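Sequence, structure tokens reproduced for reference:
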Amino acid sequence: MAYLHEFREFFRTNPYHMIGVVETWLNDATGDQHVELPGYTILRVDRQNKRGGGVAIYIKKELNFRLLSSSSGDGQVIIPEYLIAEIWGPSQYKIMVAVVYRPPKAGYMGMFEDDIAPRIVNYKFTCVLGDFNADLQTTNDKAVRLRDLFDTSGLSIVLLQPTNHSAQANTWIDVCAVGHLANLHAWGQSSQPFLSSHDLIYICLRYKHPKPARRIIKCLSWKEIDSDAATELINRRKHELDGTNGTQQSLDQYLDKLNCLVQEIINQCVPVRKFVAKHRPTPWLTQELREKCKERDKCYRRFKINGRCEAWESYIQIRRPAQSLWKKDQANYLQSVFNHSGHTRQFWGEMDRLGLTVASTKSRGALNFNIEALINYYATIIAGRKFPPLDGLLTSLSRVQANEDFPFTHANMDDGVKHLAAGTYGATGIDGLSAQALKMLKNLIVPLITELINNSLDTCCYQTQWRSSLITPIPKI
């Protein structure tokens, strides 16, 4: 798809529930992720063994769909290319949609007619649209046969103006035919060629489909934390943390109470902010580019009014620089982003934010062996080996002489602030608290955490919950 950037930008701001595309020029080497449209699922049929051709349907992810049939061929014989699918919304009836591309030398539509005709009676509404390369403004053989195809199938052609434009002629080769015209709320075409020399044609069906709910995101607003209320809460509840007697149980209880206190501070003193996710406008759309596009549209409207070749040439001369300027501004913007991205992690973060990275399609399948068998294997491979006694091993590893003390230095609050400030992850641990939350509250809770750590050093006991969170599994090789 040579106009992929323009295609994505247009349908980002002009969403349709279903988009049919002909002459996609895709092949097996191009994955779906390279031509994806955010919010849509793609169905496609590519031309085999030859360049060009191909059809695709983009369907909104809120809708259900099923592929019914598609054209097939080895590329040696030129045949019409098509894709037939059924689409339906939640608790709604199913409709059938077919997207067709008939190459100029493809002959007639017998194969497509035999495929779709028996299916039409099964649906309340059917829509066939595509590029048939048969000018319905004329009465030549191709146009007559195309009209007969729709008449015998019980489909009505939606009346449109010429849809393909060149300096020599304006032809009506992009056609839409539907089962019941009365079911249409509106139809039409773009005021100028959408991509290449073709107009965008569209219909609006009277079909009840619920609007997708706005995605409301909730997050903690740490910038608006009520520090005075948090300090007062700590002073009011601090007496509950007193009374450790040096046992493992008392230290665990201290930690549980501290976690509850931190959670209470978050719930009462940190407000929750709600916002709706919105798409950012195209960042490289400069004022100069806007003016170029406006001038291009004006030239095309002039050509449509008078139909002169001079007006068409003016339109072409402005359209090409506009496309070049679009690509240039986009490249300059991306280059500036990458130049200021800094380290590697930030660079790939910018790549991902701009949609230039491709998500991996690999998935982890189920293990093809029994896990119990694997455990038994590792448990039995040491059979027959002789190991030294545990007491002798501990004696050889001992680096501390008898009656020699191993002194600790008590932690201070500066150390606590330093280490809590290093936490940036939003994932919660087994205590239900994230490293980011502890970092934002470090000035309030560091005295309590420091006291707890020093109690652990004095009593040679370490909190059970903290020990559990530091377990790192060792991979078996």
Summary: The first strand starts at residue 18 and ends at 22. Residues 370-397 form one domain.
